[in-house]
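Standup notes
- HV: blocked on the assembly model, inputs below
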Amino acid sequence: MRKVLNILNYVITYTFLVVLSVMVLYPIAFAIGGAFSPGKSLANLSVLPFPANPTLDHFDDLFNRTNYILWYRNTFTIAVANTVVVLIVTLISAYIFSRFRFKLKKPMLMSFLILQMFPSVVGVIAIYVILNRLALSDTYLGLILVYSAGALPYNIWLIKGYFDTFPRSVDEAARVDGAGNLTVFVRIVIPNTLPIIAFLGITSFMAPWMDFILPRFILRSDSKKTLAVGLFEMITGRSNDNFTMFAAGALLVAVPFVILFIINQKYLVKVMAAGALKE
Amino acid sequence: MRRNASVYAPAASALFMGLGQIVVLRQYLKGALLAVLEIVFLLNAETLFKAVRGLITLGDPRPDLPVRLRDNSTFMMLDGLIAVVVMIFFIIFYTVNIADARKQGRLYERTGEIQTTRQFLKSLGEKAFAYVGLSPAVAMISFFVVIPLVYAALLAFTNFSAPSHLPPNNTVDWVGLETFREMASLGGQFSKAFLRTSIWTFQWALLCTLTTYFGGLFIALALNEKKIRIARVFRTVFILPYAVPGAVMLFVWANILNGQFGPLTKILRALGAVEWLKNMGVLQSDAIPWLSDPTMARIMLILVNLWLGFPYFMMMMTGIMTSMPEDIFEAATIDGADKFQKFRYITLPLLLYQTLPLMILSFSYNMNNFGGVYFLTQGNPSDNLTTGTFAGSTDTLMTWMYKLAYDTRIYNKASVIAICMFVVIAPFAIYNFARTKSFREGEL
């Protein structure tokens, strides 16, 4: 009797997990299938995501008929520049907060902690006016400054926490040997905290790819459009007309993301858990 | 001079920055630097005060002038705000200058010693690295985080909106609480829309948090069962919604839930369910209103959000469960606890305790979640309230604010919503602050 119950238990659990897997995988499979299916619109796609006669036409259209490559390049440029700015400013600030004592340290750290809760988007109207005033509207520089500034409070806390765990005695030893502030920072602290720096780099690189509101407000000209805005405009309005082409475009963004995620999975989960649970 | 240096020095420095340092304490370099600071301030004082006056008046309407020469109220407001910040900094420096004169004066009185130029330069050099190194971060955060928050709050007290109060063509005026009154007055269109949107935003955040949290918990527990052989495979599959960029999957979902041509409708149609529902009188047409019926759309939004959001909690819970110390469970086994008791009295309480902060932060995240609503429904379906207020029946405060600002340029009302969002976020910010290690251990 007990054995029967046990078996039943397995059957139920496995069935549940399999059904759930199908529900998780179906939308993804449907999009991938759509990318290779002939025809343009949602209406003539089959329910099962396996096209009988797969085609690469949509990728061709995407490259030749839309500005997809331009959007991709724009977003890539923004992501790279954002990473560079975030890395430089965050690392220097975190090092100073971790190693120096000065009067305004506590109030500054406290205000960062509170500021990191407010998303930049809440101030988007003001940001738009400020960038106009500084003649930075419709420029990548403006957008990058807004992104990196918005991420600074959180990032500084994250990296400062990590620098704090790196023993001070090591940099003091170097100081005795005559190293200055900058030498200690570049030659000793950075090489010894590379994993967290890599993490910061990857997250800053990934952040701009799917952001929508800020690029839409700041980058008004067509030639500066980013991927998220471009893809959104591709499917809204005449939504079911362009689904297959959209799916092809989405696939080209999603694949590198999933690869990056899987490579970093272990580390990512660890840092997320540490950041969220302990701080 | 030495006798009353602790009185004369700060008094002189209060009169003019650096005066006490130069005359009483003979610290020529420091005094000169401070004096230069005040001179620079005085030379720019007119500009600063003009900017502050601009902040108060917001410019005069001059329809006779060409657009380029008219007063731009929003720029004047920004300049005024920056001028106020500069003045606050100047006042802080001024106070520091007096405090320094007092401190050095006391020292001089007591010991007869004065900080030499070399000592001053050395202490300056130590601090300088810190302050110079932090200046880019501080400048960026003040310009693109702090000033926008203050500015957005100020806009709520103006009439900055389309069609007749948009610079550079027209000026903007302070209207006090007028916009708030319109948003809150009973019976008005905007207040009705505001109430509906606020309630739905709250429901949305609460339901999203609860569903993803308990969904993630449930699956993590199911996969934690030691007898499930291929748990790793399932886990990898279930992480996928988190690994794929959320916006992309929301766009895909919007198509899957297409009432006429979406695959879900097609499946139900093939099974005859659509026909049956039509005969029952539930459906009027061949299409299923997944996203075009208000209630249905809200349910779908929450379900799609569950699809996107449960992996995060699943990962967190799995991580916590694998790091739970084995010895508690061994001790419980020795005491005769069975499997269910171990779960009920050890695993669950530990899990809930450790993930409560995540749940609370997730609530605040969902309040501000834009894509989760906008990419799926754009706030639609619209109804009679939408015509005047632009708030669709699935709009949250976030998406409504976006629409008011981007689509219709009613910036003042958008700013009132932004203020409401500050007010909602603030307790979470304080909570987040209070639970940090540094705060609890008294480091801060």
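- HV (later): unblocked. Chain A touches chain B through 91 residues (CB under 8 Å). The radius of gyration of chain A is 24 Å.
- Next: hand off to the docking folks.
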